[in-house]
Design a protein that fits this description.
Length: 134
């Protein structure tokens, strides 16, 4: 995948978000870590369909869905404020699915690509390799 210079890369799962900016060129990305933003995960409505019961004992799913909705809200705001001009989202498959539900039309237009892979906590070189291989 070609990653435009200055593009933002969001690496997420249901609990963490890491942001990077491409300070390299399109064919040789060089990711620089950005400050970790605070995510408002109070939006529990996105995961409301996951009832906690003996049939579905995963009590954390609602929290993870709310966190993903909070990530999308942050990315939407930054795109609309002009702080993100190009975006690649790398996320665990389930998180990516939840993020997509909350993309604003403007964010979708700035989306360079998505990679369904959990790379949170991995070295930046792994993220760069995943982008190059996509």
């Amino acid at each position: 995948m070609q990653l435009p210079r200055g593009a933002t890369v969001a690496v997420a799962d249901g609990e963490r978000l890491n942001l990077f900016r491409n300070s390299g060129d399109e064919t040789n990305p060089k990711l620089t870590a950005l400050p970790t933003p605070h995510i408002q995960s109070a939006n529990k409505g996105s995961g409301g369909r996951h009832e906690n019961s003996s049939a579905n004992p995963d009590h954390n799913q609602v929290d993870e869905d709310g966190f993903a909705a909070g990530i999308a809200q942050l990315l939407n705001r930054r795109v609309m404020d002009g702080k993100i001009t190009g975006l690649v989202v790398i996320a665990a498959l389930r998180t990516l699915g939840e993020l997509r539900k909350h993309y604003h039309q403007t964010l979708s237009a700035k989306l360079v690509g998505e990679i369904a892979k959990d790379l949170t906590g991995h070295p930046v070189q792994d993220v760069e390799k995943a982008i190059a291989a996509a």
